[in-house]
Structure formats: structure tokens, C-alpha cells
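Slide 14.
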Amino acid sequence: MTLNSRRICAILAISTWPALNFLEDNWAEVVRRGPRSIFWVALYTALFAVAGLLAYRIAARRRPGGGGLVVGVCLATTVLVFSYSTLDSVRDWVLGDSLAWFTTPMAWVLVIGVAIALMYRFRRTTKLHDAAITFSLLAAGLAVARLIVEMVDYTPPPVEQAQGGLPADVPPRLPGLNVYYILLDAYAGRAALRDVAHFDNASFYEDLEQRGFRDVSTEHSNYLRTVLTLGGIFALDYPRTDDPSTWRSMKYTYPEIFDSGTPPALIRRLHAAGYTGWHSATPWGGCTHRYLHCLGDEFMLETDYVTRTFLAPTPLGRPLEILRANAEDAFESVETRLPLIEQDGRQKFVFVHLMDAHPPFQYDERCNKKWVKADDWNGWHKGLEHEYVDAINCSNKRVEHLIDFILSRHPNSIIVLQGDHGSAFTVEWDKPMAQWSKRSIAERASYLNIVLAPEDCRRWLDHPLGQINTARFVAACVEGRAPEYLPERTYMTTYSPGDEENVVRLAPSF
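Slide 15: predicted structure.
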């Protein structure tokens, strides 16, 4: 192989190296989501390779035998781009808050400057050029070998063989008894909206009561975090408790609960009753889970998930979160695709996850889209309560529109309108949980929970229910038997890193 051919191969090798490592680490996700999910990964790789080859061609034309430095530049660029998140962690570990002005971008620019200086200093050292070629070829070759091993050893989860993995071929208990579980993220109950946001949501409750809904909120959410509340809904049990042995387990948290070889308890019981599961979700958490079909735009949503995972270690990771459009509207996907999936005649379980009431508050009260900094997902800043109220009013309008759409097609449906937790304007996440005020706990634990059910199930809605027991009610209602409720519990967890990062506390009385 000539020197020119080795350099070209090295540029191609180092261009594909990050993608090969990514595929090896995420092969199960790629298989599950399909080849279209890596479209942007392949495109970015191809563009980088083309840029490298063009630079090499220009350098080789300018000086016969030139272009050796281009391989080193491509290698350095790849390492620098995909080590950005590592540099961020190192800067935080070494400096902490002592030099807050010295940001990660500044550190990254400094490292780039050092790399440029070293490359210029040794630009004529052919041994280093040869070393860069050898490293690029060996690194890509090793990545290819590891990917091949992963592909050969990969065994798809036994979804079809798992008990309850597929819907049973049984007739429905009642005609048209579809289930619509609508999760309104961060939608607080009456108490927090009144006491913290100074907003009376009574008209919304009255409108829903006229449609047959019942308010069954305990105002004591089972959890204060989405991943645990949703995990509990699908597990029909508490995924983590104050027992320390449960604190680090991800088995029953959301969305990891769908990655098991066994379907979540709620899905297993719905499948046994003949229900087909559909998921209409925001890009947060993905959509195409095992045991559920994606009701949204699968290409846009799942490609977005894989692409963001690929670019997460790079400087593009955070701007992509800020600039990316709302690729998936959970409500719209139900309204536009429901008529299509009804054609098979099976009973449907549709899980809808809407983020409209959650920071950053992207909609005004008329549901007009606002410009917001989209990465501020914990932006419960004092003074923004009015924006939260606007987002609630927008959600109310969209909810009522969706409900009327559903009931016009399936008047016997079970519909759950539920918040996973409340707001957090008074919660001081940086403090130990023992120092949280009862007012802040009550705010975060206040949640919406309104249920519409067929007449023969309404007798089991005679007392308030937490999110987990509400899911147990749904499963029992489709089965036509009395629910087996668990004791109501409210568990506290924090978002802040530190000694309590994975700790779960039983909330005090509030």
C-alpha cells in the first residue's frame, strides 16, 4: 500500500471511529429502533470524512508528497470534539466552583490552542505523521472488530416469548373500552395552584365534571420525580422506597422499565385483556419502547434520540437541546393517528405524555409558541408563576379538545388525566431533604388526578388515589374486578448531586 493510500485510509478510519464506537456501545438500541435511527450519525460521519479528504487533496496538490499533517489534524479534531463532555467533567472535578468564570468552552478553546501549537511545532516530524496513520488504522480496526463481536453476540430480547409480551386474542369486556392514560408532566393539583401560583383552576374541574370525570387526587404524589412516578405507574408498585437496597436499581424506573425481557406489570395485564399498547410521547424518554407501539412520528422522534446520544459528548450536545424543534406533539399524534390505528378493531391502551406545563414554559395561555431556552427543564424560578399559569391554561384547552375528540369516537373509554408531580417554585433542591419546608413538599407533591370510567367501575373511585393506585384501578377496570390497592405513600428524592443523590425518604406529614 502506498503512502498516499495509507493516508486516505487513515482519514476514512478516523472519521468513522466515533460512529463505530457508538454503534458498538448502543447496538441494542439501534436494532430496536431500526436502521433509519442512525441516518444523521451516518451523515455526520460522511461529511467529516469528505472534509478530511478535501483538505488532504488540497494539501497534496500544494506540495508533492504533502498532506501528512492532515491525518494528524483529523485525529486531533476527532479527539477534541468527542472529548468535550469529558473535559467538562474534569474541569468540574478539578476546579468546582472556585473558578466559575473559567467555563468549559474556555477550557476547550485552551486545549485546542495547545493542540494547534504542538501540531505546528512538530509539523515536519514524519515519524509523528506515521504514528497518527498507524493509530487511526488500528483504532478503527479495533472498533470494527468489537462491533462485529457485538453484532454476532447480540440476542434480541425474547419479547414474543415473554409472558404477556403480546396482546392476547380475547374479546373486550365492554365494547369501545379503550384506555387513554394522559400524563401531564408537572401539572399541579388544586392546592399548589391556589397556594403557590395563586390560580383557581375550578372552571377546568367543573368542565370535566360535566363530562363525567371525578377528581381523585390525594394531593400527595407517590414520588416527586418523573422517572419514579412513571416507573411506578407501569410497575403497578413502588419502584424505590426508603429501603436502601432499592435506591440504585434502575429496573423499574422510566424508561428503563421497558428494557427488560419481561413486560411491565401494567402492560402485561392489559395484554392479557386483549389490549394493544401505544405510546405518544415527547422526545424526552423516547417512544419506541418494547411492548408498546409508537403513536408519534417514529422517524423524527427516534432519530432525534439516537442523534442526541451520538452528539452528547461533543460541543453540539447542549446547543442541540436548546435549538431542536418540538419534534413530537403528543396530543396531535393522538388526534391525527388514532383513526388509522383503529382499523384493526382491537382495544387500545394509549399513553400520552405532554410537557406543556413543565419548564421551560413554551406556550402562552392562547397556546402560542414562545421562544424559550429549551434546556432549562428545572426552571422553577420565582417570578415565573404567571408563565406557569399560562401554560396550565393552554394545557386545559388542549386537554378538553382532546377529550371531546376521544369521546366522540369512543364514549365508553377510560380516561386518566394525571400529573406526575407538582411545581417547584418553593423547593430548595440544593438543601438536604430534611431541611425542606412542609410548604415546598406540599407544592411538589400536589398533582392533578381526574378519571373518567365506565359506570360499573366508578364504585372503586370512592376515595382519593395516588398515581400507582390509579394505574391499578385502570388494570382492574379493564379486567372487570375490584382493584387491589396499595397503601398510599409519598417518597422524596432530590435532583441535586451529593450524599443524597440516590437516597429515597418517606415524606413527613404535610
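Speaker note: The first strand starts at residue 179 and ends at 184.
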